[in-house]
């Protein structure tokens, strides 16, 4: 009963506050205006005795109505009278309810995205340039507006066109003038928080860079003398950390020597901040450092962190492990995705990776569990949750990809069946699943699909049908190289092609170095190549994708590798690359003229091609069996179709929805071709049917992806089997027509 009374009391206070706020106008007498403001201050204190977060409906009422009254407050503040003073008292009380709170929870309670968009666009024009002057009369007003704008924007697709002209420029000029002015510390921190949010938004990062916010932040970091208050220092470092996640800003930050600026700031920050606060800042700086550092530098360094560095690394790992178990994804204003991306950069150093896995023996299990949770998460969520979920998956698959290069962990991967199923879905459902909210991913980071494929290839786990008809492929060599060596590669391929068939990625139709599908083409080319010609370079050694190619060629396919060094190449293969090509006969194009080196390479290739071809011929026993195998798919009945649905992990609701639609394997094939061609239209139809069939229940995106992926793979597998069978029959007919019996009755094949 008391709970009902408390709720009723809060509801009445909320209604009274809203009515009084709406009643304010410029036509009121000074006395009546004063009376209303006094009531508003009292109502505000009564409605939020324990903070705004305990009365979210009241907070929503404030946000829904405050923008209407801002022009009145603007006018009152411009006059130096009693009403001006009272207005500032109310705005101060209101801004104090916002201070130190994460208003994001308040906006997450507003589930209507259209309503959120209206809120943002109602408030952003109200933030005028003339509020940011040496006169602090507007400070409390600004401290009410900035948090509302900052916390609503992550939930919306904000672009540069949504912001007023020179918005970031006048904020920067004001901050430069007052960044260590303690009397205006609150407004400075609110501005920095807004820039932090914008620095995380891919569409706004170019504007942040153009207005030279990165330059200013690094200059503040390098400032000599006493540091500003902790929160200000912390926010400046957070801005740099958010910017470091975007490729376009990494170049700018490195040009500004950001890493050295961070390193040089340690001593003064440690002196001016207490130990806990200083370690929080160092935590953020370590993430920034990892994201800015070149992958080649991380890979080459013998990383033996100092005591403090080890402590921060342990904090990162502990946070990730805790997140996998509790679902708490935020720590020190950082989301787990940011820590995962930093660790994925650091873990390309094999020494550090092994050290951390040995010291935290539950880490791999926790990473796998975290991937399962995020790959299963519904996409019927708000924009921010989708964005963070996608970022988390990107960090996870890239980190796990680095671990998968070490065979000692393969069994642990493979024994986790749920993990392997989720990983296979990520690797094969590229068209739908990886078209996420992410507009940019950190430098040296691969897409979800590409990294997931990489893990599965390292594990020698079959998850895709072969896309090449091996029996019909012409014998060829393949070139494996880093695109940094593309000029030499083009020249080499041009000359080699005059003598032998050559497969190289840039000659393939529709292929692109940025396409995830190219990996399937590369895999097919490796499988059918007689020899892999490897162009050795430092860039090849630094590339995770190149390491993936060579690992697949050597470990899985056991292919013959011929290393080639380009001209002017001073790098000598070491580390994992040195181990892979140790003892192989190589050709160095820098030690003789091009034609001589080419002749030497052709001689090696000719000998090896002949050896491989002879071996294949001696092992090629032609079967005289002429009966075709029956294609079992066309003979499927309902129970076979049900088994296929179950084997491909189709959601039970979708099985129910399609239970009466398919009775033969042929029907499945026809629908698979239809779905391939019209999947967008089919998606809309299935959504509608699902909603109707299950009484308003929404179909989860990942369930539809699994459904589509299964049908697409079914069609590809059938088409490939059909073409291979035709090729096999044709081959048998030709070879049988040339077969004769010798005097002993043995079959001789020509």
From TrEMBL:
<dbReference type="InterPro" id="IPR000157">
    <property type="entry name" value="TIR_dom"/>
</dbReference>
<dbReference type="Pfam" id="PF13676">
    <property type="entry name" value="TIR_2"/>
</dbReference>
<dbReference type="GO" id="GO:0007165">
    <property type="term" value="P:signal transduction"/>
</dbReference>
<protein>
    <recommendedName>
        <fullName>TIR domain-containing protein</fullName>
    </recommendedName>
</protein>
<feature type="domain" description="TIR">
    <location>
        <begin position="473"/>
        <end position="645"/>
    </location>
</feature>
<dbReference type="InterPro" id="IPR035897">
    <property type="entry name" value="Toll_tir_struct_dom_sf"/>
</dbReference>
């Amino acid at each position: 009963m008391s709970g009902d009374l408390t709720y009723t009391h809060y509801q009445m206070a909320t209604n009274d506050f809203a009515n009084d706020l709406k009643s304010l106008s410029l036509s009121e007498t000074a006395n009546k205006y004063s009376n209303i403001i006094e009531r508003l201050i009292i109502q505000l204190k009564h409605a939020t005795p324990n903070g705004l977060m305990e009365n979210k409906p009241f907070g929503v009422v404030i946000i829904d109505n405050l923008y209407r009254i801002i022009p009145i407050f603007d006018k009152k503040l411009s006059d130096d009278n009693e009403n001006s003073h009272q207005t500032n008292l109310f705005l101060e009380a209101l801004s104090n309810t916002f201070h130190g709170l994460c208003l994001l929870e308040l906006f997450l309670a507003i589930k209507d995205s259209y309503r959120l968009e209206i809120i943002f666009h109602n408030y952003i024009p109200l933030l005028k340039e003339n509020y940011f002057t040496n006169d602090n009369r507007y400070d409390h007003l600004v401290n009410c507006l900035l948090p509302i704008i900052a916390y609503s924007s992550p939930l919306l697709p904000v672009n540069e066109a949504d912001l007023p002209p020179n918005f970031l420029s006048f904020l920067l000029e004001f901050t430069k003038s007052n960044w260590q002015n303690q009397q205006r510390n609150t407004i400075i921190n609110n501005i920095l928080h807004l820039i932090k949010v914008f620095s995380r938004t891919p569409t706004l990062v170019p504007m942040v860079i153009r207005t030279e916010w990165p330059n200013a932040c690094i200059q503040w970091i390098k400032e000599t003398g006493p540091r500003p208050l902790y929160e200000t220092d912390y926010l400046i470092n957070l801005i740099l950390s958010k910017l470091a996640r975007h490729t376009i800003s990494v170049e700018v930050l490195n040009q500004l020597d950001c890493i050295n600026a961070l390193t040089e700031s340690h001593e003064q920050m440690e002196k001016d901040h207490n130990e806990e606060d200083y370690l929080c800042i160092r935590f953020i700086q370590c993430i920034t450092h990892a994201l800015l550092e070149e992958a080649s530098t991380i890979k080459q360094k013998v990383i033996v962190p100092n005591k403090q560095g080890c402590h921060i690394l342990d904090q990162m790992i502990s946070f990730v492990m805790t997140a996998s178990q509790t679902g708490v994804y935020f720590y020190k204003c950082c989301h787990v995705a940011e820590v995962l991306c930093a660790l994925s950069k650091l873990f390309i150093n094999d020494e550090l990776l092994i050290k951390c896995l040995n010291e935290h023996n539950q880490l791999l299990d926790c990473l796998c569990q975290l991937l399962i949770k995020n790959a299963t998460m519904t996409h019927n969520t708000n924009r921010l949750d989708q964005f963070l979920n996608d970022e988390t998956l990107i960090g996870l698959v890239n980190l796990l990809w680095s671990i998968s290069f070490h065979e000692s962990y393969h069994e642990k991967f493979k024994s986790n069946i749920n993990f392997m199923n989720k990983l296979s879905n990520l690797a094969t459902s590229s068209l739908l699943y990886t078209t996420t909210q992410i507009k940019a991913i950190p430098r040296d980071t691969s897409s979800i699909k590409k990294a997931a494929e990489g893990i599965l290839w390292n594990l020698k786990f079959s998850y895709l049908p072969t896309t090449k008809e091996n029996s019909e492929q012409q014998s060829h060599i393949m070139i494996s190289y880093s695109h940094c060596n593309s000029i030499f590669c083009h020249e080499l391929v041009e000359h080699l092609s005059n003598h032998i068939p050559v497969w190289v990625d840039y000659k393939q139709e529709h292929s692109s170095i940025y396409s995830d599908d190219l990996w399937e083409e590369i895999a097919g080319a490796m499988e059918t190549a007689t020899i892999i010609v490897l162009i050795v370079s430092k860039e090849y050694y630094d590339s995770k994708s190149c390491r993936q190619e060579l690992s697949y060629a050597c470990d899985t396919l056991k292919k013959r590798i011929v290393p080639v060094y380009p001209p002017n190449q001073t790098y000598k293969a070491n580390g994992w690359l040195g181990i892979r090509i140790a003892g192989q006969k190589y050709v160095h194009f820098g030690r003789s003229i091009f034609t001589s080196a080419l002749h030497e390479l052709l001689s090696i290739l000719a000998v090896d091609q002949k050896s491989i071809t002879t071996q294949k011929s001696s092992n090629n026993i032609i079967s005289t069996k002429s009966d075709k195998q029956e294609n079992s798919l066309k003979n499927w009945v309902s129970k076979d179709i049900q088994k296929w649905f179950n084997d491909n992990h189709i959601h039970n609701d979708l099985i129910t929805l399609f239970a009466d639609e398919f009775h033969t394997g042929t029907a499945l094939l026809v629908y698979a071709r239809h779905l391939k061609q019209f999947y967008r239209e089919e998606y809309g139809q299935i959504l509608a049917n699902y909603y109707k069939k299950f009484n308003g229940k929404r179909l989860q995106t990942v369930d539809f992806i699994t459904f589509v992926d299964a049908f697409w793979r079914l069609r590809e597998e059938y088409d490939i089997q059909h073409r291979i069978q035709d090729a096999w029959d044709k081959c048998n007919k030709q070879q049988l027509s040339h077969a004769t019996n010798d005097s002993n009755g043995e079959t001789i094949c020509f």
